[in-house]
Specification:
This protein is an alpha/beta fold and 265 residues long. It has a five-stranded parallel sheet with strand order 2-1-5-6-7, with helices on one face. The protein is globular and about 50 Å long.
Length: 265
């Protein structure tokens, strides 16, 4: 159990002062470019470093051919890259000294044997370099209080007090407009995807320690660390409520759970 929010492995993921962005370009048909566009629109106030092997500028920001060329070690790397080059890019981040990353790219354990092999390779890479990872196969994080939103949909509402951790990425973004219509908003929203490293329990710990979060919502397809989940939940509920939607109990829910987290509930 963490005592303060800064002890959480998710703190720099949700509160970075500098971000390296892999996969964004000036081609607005690509997912990385769409995400970078909404990231830019949110007005993130920290340093932004698009990494692209050919572009010299990405959507108005100076681009760097390699992460090794960056003028500093960013707090966070965000990757929306072809699956086959994610491990190589992550190793380069490790060599640079980056310790936190979000991998949006899919095509890992949720697609079968070949994807499982790639995910195991990614796990070995982040373990080697001590990188804490959200994903893969996720949308990462949105923290309106820090003007941080690298998801594909723009966040048009105000910062709020609802914290969420979801094993479905699209569920988080689907809630943006819905909450805005009710004059509500997120404190921080996490999409955890395949949970290679950081998972729902880590998100609960972070949101439990977050002074901007008054209530925690969970979208659950399967729980991997059952004992820890119960322990953390029991420590949180005396001072803030947790509302959970479990969709793994139906056939449709089990199929959705497999496609998002590769974990049959």
């Amino acid at each position: 159990m963490i005592k303060t929010i800064k002890e959480s492995a998710l703190f720099q993921v949700a509160n970075p002062k500098s971000v390296a962005f892999f996969g964004a370009s000036n081609n607005f048909n690509s997912m990385g470019s769409i995400q970078f566009s909404s990231f830019k629109a949110m007005g993130f106030e920290g340093a932004v470093y698009p990494v692209h092997p050919r572009e010299k500028e990405v959507q108005g920001f100076k681009a760097y051919q390699s992460v090794m060329d960056l003028p500093e070690v960013p707090d966070l790397a965000i990757m929306t890259l072809p699956t086959k080059i994610v491990c190589q890019a992550m190793a380069q981040c490790g060599e640079k000294g980056i310790k936190h990353a979000i991998v949006v790219s899919g095509g890992f354990s949720e697609v079968g044997e070949d994807g499982i092999t790639l995910q195991n390779e990614l796990k070995e890479t982040v373990s080697k370099y001590g990188i804490r990872l959200v994903g893969p196969n996720c949308l990462g994080v949105a923290n309106p209080h820090q003007k941080l939103n690298p998801t594909p949909l723009r966040y048009l509402g105000k910062p709020g007090f609802i914290g969420i951790a979801s094993q479905s990425g699209s569920f988080v973004t689907q809630m943006f407009d819905y909450l805005n219509q009710m004059a509500l908003g997120f404190s921080t929203a996490f999409s955890v995807g395949n949970e290679l490293d950081l998972d729902l329990v880590d998100c609960m710990e972070y949101l439990g320690a977050c002074d901007k979060t008054k209530v925690i919502a969970l979208y659950i397809e399967g729980i991997r660390r059952g004992k820890e989940f119960i322990k953390v939940a029991k420590s949180i509920v005396p001072h803030k409520p947790i509302v959970a939607l479990y969709i793994g109990g139906t056939e449709t829910g089990r199929k959705a759970g497999f496609s998002h987290t590769a974990a049959m509930s």
